Amino acid sequence: MAEKVTHSICVGGPIAIHSENGVIRRVRPIIFDKDDPQPWVIEARGNKYSPYRKTTTAFIALTEKNRAYSYDRIRYPMIREDFVETPDGQNRNADNRGKSGYRKATWDEALDLVARETKRIQSRYGKEAVTAITSSHHSWGVLGYKLSAFARFFRMLGYTQLQDNPDSWEGFTWGAPHTYGYYWRLGGTEAFDLLEDALQNVETMIMWSHDPDTTRGGYAANESTMWRHWLDDLGVQFIYIDPFNNFSSVKQADKWLAPRPGTDAALCEAIAYVWMTEGSYDKEYIAKHGHRFDEWQDYILGNGADRLPKSPKWAERETGIPAADIKALARRWAQTKTMGGSGLRGGFGGVCRTANGTEFARVMVSLFAMQGMGKPGQNIWVGTTGAPMDYNFWFGGYSDPLSQIANQPIADKTAVNCVTQKLYRPNLPDAILDGHYEWYGEGFCGGGIDLEFTEHVYPEPGCSEVHMFYRYGGTFMGSMLDTNKWVKMYRSPKLEFIVNQDIHFHGESRFADVILPACTNLERYDIGELCNSGNGGYQSHSQTGNNWQIVVFQDKAIEPLWDSRSDYWIFAELAKRLGFGEDYSEGRDELAWCKRFWEKSDLRDKISWEDFTKKGYYVAGIPGTERERHYGFRWFAEGYPCDTPNHKPFQEEGKLGTFTGKFEFVSESMLYYAPDDEVRTPIATYKPSWEGHHSIKAKKFPFHLITPHPRFDYHTQHNSSTPWIWEIPENRKYIAGNPYLIARIHPEKAAEKGIKDGDIVELFNERGSVLCVARVTYRVEVNTIHAYGSSGIYNPTVPGEISTHENPDIGGCVNILSPGRLIGDKVPGMAPNSTLLDICKWEGALPQGQYFESKLDAVAKEADPDAETCFEIIEGHGFEAIQAKVRAKQA
Amino acid sequence: MRLGIAIDSRMCMACYCCFTACKDEHAGFDTALSKAQPQMGQFWIDIRETERSDSSRRVKVSTVPTPCSHCQEPACAKAAKDGAIYKRSDGIVIIDPEKSKGQKAIVDACPIHAVYWNEEYQIPQKCTMCAELLDDPSYLAYLGDPKLKKPRCVEACPNNAMFFGDLDDPNSDISKAIAANKITQLRELEGQATNVVHLNVPTRYLAGTVYLPEELEEVAIGASVTLKGKGGTYTTTTNYFGDWEIEDLPIDEKFDITITHENYKPITLSAATDSDHYVGQTFLSK
Fold it and tell me: What are the backbone dihedrals phi and psi of residue A262, each rounded to the nearest 5 degrees, phi first?
């Protein structure tokens, strides 16, 4: 059989997949042919800028083959070996979850059991006794996404919705709207056409806890990397502010400033102090667009209640950055056209995930306001979005209700959840273990600023507690905090039945009673657009982070491996067993659903279904130099009705989404909803962290841990399954079958602790203990330990037990160490970058392997005595053997 | 014809696309020219990241993706017996997986450590410049343009940091890229002609920051900084942060540094380029 080329898309970008004889040979970026459209052109400062005629990938996209044939694939449906299907749900050896092995099951056996338990639990306790949640983006595509196939199933079933927290941007979500609105973008601003603005006008870029080459526009591959090189070539100055001299910074920074973690708002306040005392801000703009600026100015200058001037000298003591450098930063910012912000899309930086993250976000927005935000070259823009785009071409993104099979018009009938009770992800373990939990907010509060203050009680009056947990895709052991809390929850007999549906045998899968093996995107049909989170969604028009708007037919390259099945198939089969199979599928198979997305979008007018599926992708034409332009925020600066594509009715009057329609330096929304909030005071202020260098705890645990979004992973979904990348020196070090995570420490502190580069070290505090490999480097602020968060690998030395000094994790799951509490009583965000710990050289023995492989190997051997073991796939010829078997079967 | 790859270190952000594409192509697959790369332990394109720093005041990292250099006169070929290594007419250097069996000397002969030993097969292995794909007319035929066919690493580079083509053709992408940039041969290969050409790999920098007298808490903007070494004199002025830096200095030289600023006493320092140095925060006095 000849080599076949199909296409797909993943969080790392669009890919072309070569397969032959039923196996995948290679994965490549998509190179455009002569029929694809010409690129956009931006003219700026005498140059013409255009992107290359291909889609880029992040390197993780090129690991998709490896991830499909990965050693940790769940190959068969599995049932915990000591699970007993007791009629009352008790005495099921719940305490052994995480420790016990599994036995292979047939699909009928596993699905029948899940259906029986769902019926039993819902009839005994009520519909609300089932809860379920997914992680984000473990697969790409609008059919298989969590808001589509998963949501349709559980809404039809009826369940306690488990709300997500905006875990990537917290501070900007809960803070920034109180200064300038934009709650519908979760605190982020609008970047429309700002790439052109920047190329034409900007002189200084402030990259505040922002590592664009690591976070890559979210899921925009490496599309924007070249833009920042263009700016660099124009002599634009890049100033990086981050306790870690991150991977973009070490290659591109003209200046790196390293504040002590959690003190960034103090630095912001000192910048404001310099501008106020030197008169170097846009007074006219503030007079016109600011609300109660004078009161904030009083606070900054030392005329407020605390009588403390927020001078550079004061900020030097908090941040560790010399006062002279702070003044120089403030003056450069004031004297040149400056754009910047925090983290990908302006509000996702690690600093937002600290105890003071909301206040940092608010003061940060205030600084941009002081320099005339929205005027040419003056804006919140971080060099990762804002490329030209055809705003008139619409294909739905994942968060767009119009492009989910849960809703009309993709489905004929919308699925509606009949249960009103809710749970909240960061504190799910507290709710389950304590049987009671109260919190504010609706998770993602894009619907209105008032939603932040909704009160929730679990259990809702008249409702049952939850007794069944259905976990789908990825793992929160790694991305959620205080991991040990999750272990305790999983071992609680209160959860009578736990299902895990995933592709890989992740940390959380190992605690389930029944495990259902899903296949990868390469083994099923789907459809999706690069980096489209949904026009009208929280990150509307995120495709402007790309050079090209490309919709991909995610063809099935190979048949599902082993006994795995598509997520859609699994939900459809369960729906059948639960009596709503026909309603769930509406008679469609996966290909028919894909066609619905084509039919209900502008794609239908551009390319026939036959041509689209044959070619495999469609690139939207980019308008020429006469194209429409809608520079983000320009409308506000210049005082005309909002003309950008993502706007609200009040913006048509030239107003912001705050109560007053202006920048609020004293927040009227905070005064109205929560004047007593101790975290978000009416005037945003720097406040020392509840776990920081002013804490008593710092005497025992003197180091700050920061755990930014990972460079060598996407959430928890690639690093664990892709041994190739375990040998990247800045990622992990592969020792005796286990990939130890790199933890970075300053040479001065390493010398004090007797730690050398490459040593195994123990990171520890009262919450637990994690073994890493030390990288001794000047790239960290002196009091900081840097280790990437979202480790998809979680391996406590004694599986199923909580991590302690006697039982350290060797997977690099550093969120074992981070605080499980919320930022504040009324701020339901998490703060992994407000963690204190200590570090020492590890003198103990190192184990062989990763502890969980034996469980997978046992099931694989049970199914096939010749099965390849995990170790053979990682280091030996397992991959070749698996492919050879499929080839032989085909022949 | 002389096929080559040019690699621009300035544009390389160590994104690891080249590394992963190479693994994807060669790990686990025998080809017409090579045995399969083992899943672990070999890096036919190895991204060598070097931290250039002795202070948190100034940190840079150089990133040098390093495949086999496909030398004009390969040291490995000299070390090889039985013609186990040959140079094709297009300049690509190939290790014959059969003839090279047992010849560990080939690994040791490579000055840049780009050849790896396969313990299981007892053979040396390295980058083939994807010659087996370049040779295959059916590969990427669907794109309809043979010029779009490139080694996997080059194709995967998202940032135009890698160029492929005929070094003998002055109009090829690669020749143009080389002409427009600074050739920085790897030190171990100095003086040798290679088909893989490294561009813009930095040498050494000296840097510092100048402040007005300490009690003023102000940086000194526009101060003159002069470096005198045996090979020449370099001058610069401090920027808006009081920072100065001279990049790409000759290696292993001593420099006398003079800092002058109107109305202040000149300051003299000395530093050497044995490695990259941040010479410190300098405070002026009257």
Answer: 85, 0
| Averaged pLDDT, A108-114 | 98
**Helices then strands (H, E): number in chain A?**
28, 34
**B286/B284 Cα distance (integer angstroms):** 7
The distance of Cα A652 from the centroid of its chain, to the nearest Å, equals 32
- Is B241 in contact with A332 (Cβ distance < 8 A)? yes
CA dist A682 and A692 (Å) reads 23
ipTM over 0.95 threshold: yes
Residues B48, B49, B50, CA angle at the centre, nearest 5°?
115
Non-local (6+) Cβ contacts of B146 within 8 A are none
CA distance A423 to A154: 15
Domain A190-387+633-639 has CATH 3.40.1000.70: no
Residue in B closest to A70 by C-alpha: B39
B217: nearest CA partner in chain A: A324
> By the CB < 8 Å criterion, does A598 face chain B?
no
The domain of B107 spans 3-199
* Closest Cβ–Cβ partner in B20, B56, B241 for A724: B20
Q: Residue A646 carries which DSSP code? A: S
Chain A CB within 8 Å of residue B73 CB = no
B35 with B176, same domain: the answer is yes
- Give the dihedral of Cα atoms A521, A522, A524, A525; nearest 10 deg: 80
User: Is the pTM here over 0.90, yes or no?
Assistant: yes
Q: Which residue of A has its CA nearest to B25?
A: A26
Q: Is A119 within 8 Å of chain B by CB?
A: no
Contact A666, A683 (CB under 8 A): yes
Place of tokens 């790896």: B116
Query: pLDDT tens across A37-52, in order?
Result: 999 999 999 999 999 9
Angle at A767 between CA A761 and CA A768, to 5 degrees: 35
CB interface of A with B, residues 765-794, below 8 Å: 777-782
Relative to beta strand A78-80, strand A514-517 is antiparallel
* CATH of residue B233: 2.60.40.10
Same domain? For B184 and B263 the reply is no
Just list the catalytic residues of A: 137, 167, 398
- Give A560-598 as a DSSP string: PSTT-B-HHHHHHHHHHHTT-HHHHHTT--HHHHHHHHH
Does A324 contact chain B (CB < 8 Å)?
A: yes
Contact of A331 with chain B, judged by CB distance below 8 Å, is answered with: yes
Check: CB of residue A189 under 8 Å from CB of residue A633.
Answer: yes
| B208 plus B83 within the same structural domain | no
Comparing CA positions, the residue from A459, A370, A434 lying closest to residue A820 is A434
**Number of independent structural domains in chain B:** 2
- Residue A1 — pLDDT band, cuts 50, 70, 90? very low
Both tokens assigned to A877: 């010829």
On the question of pLDDT at A270 being above 80, the answer is yes
User: Do residues B133 and B72 share a domain?
Assistant: yes
Give CA–CA dist A342/A380, Å, rounded.
9
Q: Does B137 touch chain A (CB under 8 A)?
A: no
From first CA to last CA, the distance across chain B in angstroms is: 65
Is CATH 3.30.830.10 the right assignment for the domain spanning A696-841? Answer: no
Residue of A nearest to B155 (CA): A29
B120 and B166, same domain (yes or no): yes
Domain limits, chain A: 190-387+633-639, 696-841, 853-890
Q: What is the overall mean pLDDT for chain A? A: 96
Tokens 């329609």, residue located: A661
Cross-chain Cβ contact B241/A325 below 8 Å? yes
Beta strands in A376-492 (DSSP E): 379-380, 422-424, 437-440, 455-458, 468-472
The answer to whether A511 and A80 are in contact (CB under 8 A) is: no
Binned at pLDDT 50, 70 and 90, residue B203 comes out as: very high
Interface contact flag, A222 B17, Cβ < 8 Å: yes
